[in-house]
Recover the amino acids of this structure.
């Protein structure tokens, strides 16, 4: 199982930004289409929209969102040159061969626990 690095937190060193670009390029090299996301800031979200509470650092910086995800290294470098602290979005599903199961809270954990033996996940 592969793990996507956590979002960059405000106050992290510049090297964290470089590692985000490196991670995005590595994902693309694996065939995962990536795109830049907004990131958390000390004031909330880099989008600066006051109604962004539930999606801070989780929504696209590019206008066409996940439809604009790319494997192209030069495009990815361009995005991270413009937004060096951007979180990394991965377009999931058949196009990338990456599928995600989002487990939230105790109820989600219980559901996953029930699924593990059935799906041979444990």
């Amino acid at each position: 199982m592969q793990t996507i690095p956590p979002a960059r937190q405000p106050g992290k060193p510049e090297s964290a930004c470089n590692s985000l670009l490196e991670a995005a390029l590595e994902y693309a090299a694996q065939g995962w289409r990536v795109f830049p996301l907004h990131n958390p800031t000390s004031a909330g979200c880099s989008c600066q929209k006051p109604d962004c509470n539930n999606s801070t650092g989780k929504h696209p910086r590019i206008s066409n969102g996940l439809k604009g995800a790319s494997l192209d290294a030069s495009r990815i470098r361009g995005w991270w040159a413009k937004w060096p602290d951007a979180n990394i979005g991965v377009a999931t599903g058949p196009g990338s061969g990456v599928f995600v199961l989002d487990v939230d809270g105790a109820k989600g954990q219980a559901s996953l626990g029930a699924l593990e033996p059935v799906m041979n996940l444990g």
About this structure: The chain has a mean pLDDT of 84. DSSP finds three helices and four strands in the chain.
